[in-house]
Amino acid sequence: LLVLTMRYSRTLKENGPRYLASSAVVSAEVLKIFMCTLLIFSENSDLTAMYELLNKEILNKPVELVKLAVPAGIYTLQNNLLYIALSNLDAATYQVTYQLKILTTALFSVSMLGKKLGSYQWLSLLFLMAGVTLVQLPVESLGDSEQNVMSASSQFVGLIAVLMACVSSGFAGVYFEKILKGTSQSLWLRNIQLGESSNEF
Prior knowledge:
0% strand; mainly alpha; UDP-N-acetylglucosamine transporter-like; 80% helix; flat; transport
């Protein structure tokens, strides 16, 4: 539903300029911070306790914020790339190609976290790559489909954007997992820190 909504909003023909992708990314981060703050409040049930917790864990730990600036910046880049990709690819091609993030996440997990993958897992990743490759092959069809109307250059831009988003998604996800494993903070606090760092970009 998210992909279809984003795709529709980026390709809608209307008078006047389109909204900026960066505005949508910042709005999503602000909404995420708000929702995580509500969840922390529901766990503490007291505004004073919540304020003290946020002050202690976020404002008084600038080193933690700097650590999270890396994945926050990458997630900001990734979200902007996804809007570029959806502006230049049809929803089906985008959705299938974006599944390559599973492959990039697996590769970064092996290299950064030292995880071991079994032979069936590697085989599954190869099938995933083969499926994504097959979707990219041109298909001759009569009729005026959305894919035929798009220019080859815009499809190339969309494909490069979604591939870069896959790599950034895999790296940022594994980096964030590595940070989470070495901390006692809740996921909600970490998401607020990520949102704060993202809004800095």
